[in-house]
């Protein structure tokens, strides 16, 4: 190998912070990736609710306002706040957008073969239909569990 030092400087063109606004594909990509902020908010909100639920005194003979005060604050004052309700609705819309774009991407990202003896792929509509069916099934299970717990 040569021991000659190169004085050549590579050209690094300047990249603006708004590079993604020039192409609609990148705009959709960045909006989709931005939905992670909503997912983070919902996750932190649920973690706070679980933490406050664990702070409740569940060993008491009967549930009183003093026993369940932390969790009731979370339900009534935090989750019941109109601003938090609005943020949750925006997060729901962002999550649905994320799910729809992910389901459309899935057949291109994961190659599912019909069987191990040939290279025919499962049609895109089958993969996407299975994903939508799974999401609908999970939604039904969660709604049934939520409404079954109502008095």
UniProtKB/TrEMBL annotation:
The chain crosses the membrane at residues 36-61, 81-105, 125-148. It comes from the Bacteria. Keywords: Cell membrane, Membrane, Transmembrane, Transmembrane helix. InterPro entries: Fumarate_red_C (IPR003510), SQR/QFR_C/D (IPR034804). It holds the Pfam family Fumarate_red_C. GO terms for cellular component: membrane. The keyword Zinc-finger does not apply. Coiled coil: none annotated. This is Fumarate reductase subunit C. It comes from Succinatimonas hippei (strain DSM 22608 / JCM 16073 / KCTC 15190 / YIT 12066). The lineage of its organism: Bacteria, Pseudomonadati, Pseudomonadota, Gammaproteobacteria, Aeromonadales. The gene is frdC.
């Amino acid at each position: 190998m040569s021991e000659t030092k190169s004085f050549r400087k590579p050209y690094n063109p300047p990249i603006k912070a708004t590079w993604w606004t020039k192409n609609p594909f990148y705009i959709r990509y960045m909006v989709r990736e931005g939905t992670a902020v909503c997912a983070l908010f919902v996750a932190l909100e649920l973690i706070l609710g679980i933490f406050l639920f664990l702070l409740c005194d569940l060993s008491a003979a009967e549930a009183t306002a003093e026993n369940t005060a932390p969790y009731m604050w979370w339900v009534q004052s935090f989750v019941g706040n109109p601003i938090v309700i609005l943020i949750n609705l925006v997060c729901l819309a962002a999550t649905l957008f994320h799910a729809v774009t992910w389901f459309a991407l899935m057949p291109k990202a994961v190659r599912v073969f019909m069987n191990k003896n040939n290279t025919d792929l499962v049609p895109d509509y089958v993969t996407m239909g299975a994903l939508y069916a799974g999401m609908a099934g999970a939604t039904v299970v969660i709604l049934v569990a939520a409404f079954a717990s109502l008095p």
